[in-house]
Write a structure and sequence with these properties.
Growth Hormone, Chain: A, 2 domains, globular
Amino acid sequence: MDDSRATRRSALLVATLSSFLNPFMASSVNIALPSIGREFAVDAVLLSWIPTAYLLSVAVFLIPFGRAGDIYGRKKVFTYGTSIFTASTLLLSVASSVGELIAFRVLQGIGSAMIFGTSVAILSSVFPASERGRALGVTVAAVYSGLSAGPFLGGFLAQQFGWRSIFWAALPLGLLILGIVRWKLKDEWAESRGEPFDLWGALFYGVSLVAIMDGFAWLPGIRGVALIVAGLLGLGAFVRWEMRVAHPVLGVHLFRGNRVFAFSSLAAMINYSATFAVGFLLSLYLQYVRGFTPQRAGLILVAQPVVQALFSPFAGRLSDRIEPRTVASVGMAFTAIGLFLLAFLREKTALEFIVLSLVFLGFGFALFSSPNANAIMGAVEKRFYGVASGVLGTTRMLGQMLSMGIVTLIFAIHLQGCPMTPESAPLLLKSAKTAFIAFATLCCCGILASLSRGKMR
């Protein structure tokens, strides 16, 4: 086997394992949230900050670390990120309070940002354009395999050994990834080596995102509105700064005049905004409203990511031959159908109906994700792969963060600080239905964004 082929296989293996590990952790923690809430006696809003803190941390650091990978080396940043992720996972397993859990999830998010900001860039560096869709399809399938295993294994571990065992189970895989990178992935990629890092731009960007997300937690009060307005103004200042600086952390020019890149990124953010909180909401619905065990709830939720994992490689290969916007837009339409179905949830909704809704969601997301990623990476020059990878990951995390922000706002309105107990089940069900209606409407808007991107070929 020649060196280039061996490098491709090693890069694909590392990207696939890391693509499995991160969503496995996220979906496992979601299914364990009710158990964590009972142990520490916290309300729904504070409980929602355990996944939200992670998402916010990833969103803040993804683009800066993607740029750092272009300058200092993508493998180097990826390796440090995997080390931080693994160490924080160990710390999470021994956390003694919700405050510690949230703090360690922030640290875990920093590690994930370093991984997400470089893994797709590494793949795009070693695979030619004619094979990129297939490689991305494999990694997307790994993402959904992680999402599939998370609810099932996470529910089993939480029920049989306690929620801390979820973090113990993830440690060996993190160490395995580090071993493969060290001994099998010999090359380094840094097409922008020698250029300065835009620290001020990264600070503008990070502080603005934190203000916006913190503002969601304080809505509908005046403090929440003020924080969101301040964050939006900060993002405006960030864009102006990036247009002036010689070597920006985020090349704004990638969005100006590059229709495919701009609308593909927008479609990704809308899609994740409409779908990420589904697992969180259904986990609470199945355990608090229906009274299911974590293990049984996980078995039901696994339907969506299993379908995603089965069809993602096919969708990736399809996008190498057919316009990605066509495949992705059809996927967005299927996703909207699944969300509209979930808006009809009742206290005794048939499980078959819930599974059918999740199948629609899974199939739609499989058709959307890897073709959309292929469009984003194929729309930029090679020296911007790290930034494009960071943008791809950031749109995902911003969307997920917005999704949890919408749910946090709806909880604040309907539940008003009530603790999560079986007695609050009617309010929880009302909140979930409101969220699914909002998400389905948002997804319909995403179809228009996906169709508007224009042709790649």
